[in-house]
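Regression report. Comparing outputs from two consecutive submissions.

Submission 1:
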Amino acid sequence: MPRLLCLLALATFVPALRADLFFDATLLPGNEVPPHVTPAFGFITMDLHADMTTLDVAETFNNLTVVATAAHIHCCAPAGTNASVVLPFVGFPSTVSGTYTHTFNLNTDLTGINAATFITALQTGNTYANIHNATFPGGEIRGQLTAVPEPHSVVVLGGCLLALALFRRRFA
């Protein structure tokens, strides 16, 4: 009976497979290639909508050594290697601390890559975000983007595994 209940509970989350995908990264100077030391830091979160063409980006940053000159997402490279810019952050603020939010259309805003290749790289951890300035033209802070697990399915799966373990223990 617990197995059936777990299967039914998991089946209710099948629509979640078509839900938005979330990604985030902590931006630090030590993540740059080559790494360096500054007081700067930041954080980025991204929401890839279920339509797989709309990407919401929200980024915060603090304590850059001089004002930002550019920010963007690079693809397609694992952590510790450099790659080309594929998604420039238009209208990024020229400040040392601030926030940035923008909604991108992956069918029109990507450069040098198609949406399918970009999404695959994003899902496999082969993209990174960084912020550049005059002191660090190669980037002052950087973070490798990673997928954020969808919490509801994880909780249901954990509950089902716990129920199965208790069921086995009770009848063992």
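Submission 2:
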Amino acid sequence: MSEGSGPGGAQASPQVERGLDLDRVVFFSDAVFAISITVLTLSLRLPTQTTDRGVADALHRAIPSIVTYVLSFVVVGLFWIAHHRMFRYITGIDAGLMRLNLVVLLVVAFTPFPTSVLGDHGNTTAAVVFYAATMTLLGLVSLSLWVYATHGRRLIRPSTPEPFIRHSFWRAASVPVVFAASIPIAFVNPFAAEWFWMLIVISRIVLRRLYGSLNEA
């Protein structure tokens, strides 16, 4: 392939960066995900207690915060897995993809705040809507990253299977769809909206049945 040519022989933009430049973006992204997951533990706070009964009561009151921590850990972890999987197939990065990736990382780094709000006020509509809206935004920008990279196959490996591209699209889309759909439910019943988020797991199972193990291709 001649210099300056892209996948399938198409002319690649001279602004597309590869090799070490792409590796730096991946390493930086992994660091932001790792820091965000670590900072999630700050949402777990226990008042100072001096008696067994006081500690037991405080731990009982902390259960919602612990559940929210686990939820956010799993959700951010899923986004990291998706991000890692995307960059196994993305072979180049341009200014547009870099900006989209920075927006993804911005929302990832912001995630501990709505996690803390939901942990402290999970029985309120405002907290549930705020958390769901944040995760919807994260899902949409993550999906945009994949759509941008795969459009015309300009930034991905030429050998990437088309079914894999579609599977990854629907996997990425399932998260913001579920969180966005839960927002109107939260105005009726916040707890029902939180249970509605379980559809993310169900959607993954359905997609795996439809596409098999293509996500491991």
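Expected: both submissions complete independently.
Actual: both completed, but the second showed a warning that disappeared on reload.
Relevant detail on submission 2: Residues 15-216 form one domain.
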